[in-house]
Specification:
By secondary structure, this protein is an all-alpha fold. It has one domain. It is built from 5 helices and no strands. The longest helix has 28 residues. The mean pLDDT is 94.
């Protein structure tokens, strides 16, 4: 992979995050995925499946044999969002609270770190060594 391709891969994951977390996430998903029990699981899983689909598309473009990263992303994205959602819901954090924004920022960084891990897996699969 060329440096340009690596940069495009990173931008593809950042675009996937923006599209899936902001453009395709409905108010219903955003407001309910942190609720307890089954009331929260359905919106959370739909949202996580959208992210998994986005990661699948990126993987198919850059490293088709790593299609399973889409499945991994469903699980990882769901865990990160569930943790943040439950914490925000239990604490009653609203956009007017600084803790809401701190948890939101940590959530986004957790997703970014996950995408960097996927990028490293794809690069390793492509034969690029790190040592």
């Amino acid at each position: 992979m060329t440096p340009f391709t690596i940069l495009m891969l990173y931008f593809a994951f950042r675009a996937k995050q923006f599209i899936c977390d902001f453009v395709l996430q409905t108010d219903w998903m955003a407001l309910n995925k942190g609720k307890p029990g089954s009331e929260g699981y359905k919106p959370l899983m739909i949202h996580a499946l959208i992210h998994g689909g986005g990661t699948l598309v990126v993987a198919l473009v850059f490293a088709p044999s790593l299609w399973w990263l889409g499945l991994a992303d469903v699980a990882i994205h769901a865990m990160v969002d569930r943790f943040k959602g439950i914490l925000s819901y239990q604490k009653g954090w609203k956009p007017s609270d600084r803790w809401f924004w701190w948890s939101f920022g940590l959530d986004q960084e957790a997703h970014n770190i996950t995408h960097v891990a996927y990028l490293l897996i794809i690069l390793s699969h492509s034969g690029i060594s790190f040592g």
